[in-house]
Amino acid sequence: MTHALLHSRVPVGIEARAVRVETHLAPGLPAFSIVGLGDTAVRESRERVRSALVNSGFEFPQRRITVSLAPADLPKDGGRFDLPIALGILLASGQLGRANTDDYECIGELALNGSLSPVPGVLPCALACGESGRTLMVPADNADEASLAGATTLAGQRLVDIAAHFTGQAPLTPHDGQMPQRRQDDAPCLSDIRGQPQAKRVLEIAAAGGHSLLLSGPPGAGKSMLASRLPGLVPPLGRRQALEVAAIHSLRQPRDTDIFYRRPYRAPHHTASASALVGGGSYPRPGEISLAHHGILFLDELPEFDRKVLEVLREPLETGQVSIARAAQQLSFPARFQLVAAMNPCPCGYLGDPEKSCGYRCEKAKRYQRKLSGPLLDRIDLHLEVPAVEARELLADREGETSEQVRERVQRAWQRQWQRQQQLNRELRSDALDTLLRPHREWLASAMTRLGLSARALHRSARVARTIADLADSEAVARDHLREALSYRQSMASTP
């Protein structure tokens, strides 16, 4: 037999497309060609496969070898095709006998000594393989991740282990991965924060409705501490959500199975580029906003980010996904994240403080705040000024509610939302909001004019009011709920 066919997969976005790895041995001068729109890493597979076969005790055929990765117009990258290429050469040269590989999909990179190295993007491939009904073969270091998908998984440490399975000399047993236990996030406790009762209240509202939040205040007021407590206030991921998150992270590097149900918490530095946030590359990979899917994206020192970088957040905040267009393909990654941002009110950070302020009270602060565009600020549900903590509060004994106590109320609010509308309040559509606002039309019209709110800002405040009502176990949204929600839109506008 001079021809062999094996099955593999390549991630395209968060999906995995099937790839047929065909190998043909022909007479003629020795040559090794790989066709099928592969990148440099794929073409370099020739040298890795050659060395791995020889160092594993197999014969490398001195013939004209052609490997086709089909479909030919699908871009392919990485070393994931090393294993199926090596097996194809062994099958086509008769070194594996008449082994049947039709019911298998193979993924893995080969080291020069024949050992198998882990590759990124295994979980999307495992999910697709499970749907096809085939058995997935992966490096041992990818086995736990692949088993999360529920597909039958075989894992090997070396090429000889996989070859011995196909020849029947030492069949591999399915990998029995332990499903991670659902446990609450071990985020820092809310009770560690001294004072700041209003900030804690807003943090609870943000957690209960999944709302975006902007904290503004002087250095040392506790803005970053408050943001780091948010993961401990929200319920853990469900299994379907956890698989989505793990599949996205798998495209970068495998997500630790110990934190399988933990909501992502991403905090990129303010020097991050637009591509770092959105994602990109010749073979697009997810950026920070997709890695924060079903979790929290924390942007500290918000005005220090490049304005063009911040503008890329506008569409994902509305749609919950990001589209990346390249010449060869266009991909979409999910990006339904909760934005939490923090900033100083001015460059020195002490606007209005008679002792610490730099003295430029108005114009310098306005120029600093104008680094943030109006459309972006309009998409942030909650704006709050966080004052400096007084010495007596800072040195007081630890008191206040714990994260667990607040989380119980947040979970009840989530349950009300899912029972009523099968989604969080931040995702309420306009028709549902119109019904909610109808009893308060005249009062809201006056409030819109007085506060200078846009229609988008009003709708976002209405969603916040719905969350406040849920926290109060109220079926209807009362005017007090709306009044509190609107108060969180005035902070930025009232700054000099």
From TrEMBL:
GO terms for molecular function: ATP binding; DNA binding. SUPFAM superfamilies: P-loop containing nucleoside triphosphate hydrolases, Ribosomal protein S5 domain 2-like. Residues 287-382 form the MCM C-terminal AAA(+) ATPase domain. Keywords: ATP-binding, Nucleotide-binding. Gene3D superfamilies: 3.30.230.10, P-loop containing nucleotide triphosphate hydrolases (3.40.50.300). SMART domains: AAA. Pfam families: ChlI, Mg_chelatase, Mg_chelatase_C. InterPro entries: AAA+_ATPase, CHLI-like, MCM_dom, Mg_chelat-rel, Mg_chelat-rel_C, Mg_chelatse_chII-like_cat_dom, P-loop_NTPase, Ribosomal_Su5_D2-typ_SF. It comes from the Bacteria. The keyword Magnesium does not apply. Belongs to the Mg-chelatase subunits D/I family. ComM subfamily. NCBIfam families: YifB family Mg chelatase-like AAA ATPase. PANTHER family: COMPETENCE PROTEIN COMM, MAGNESIUM-CHELATASE SUBUNIT CHLI. This is Magnesium chelatase-like protein. It comes from Alcanivorax hongdengensis A-11-3. The lineage of its organism: Bacteria, Pseudomonadati, Pseudomonadota, Gammaproteobacteria, Oceanospirillales.
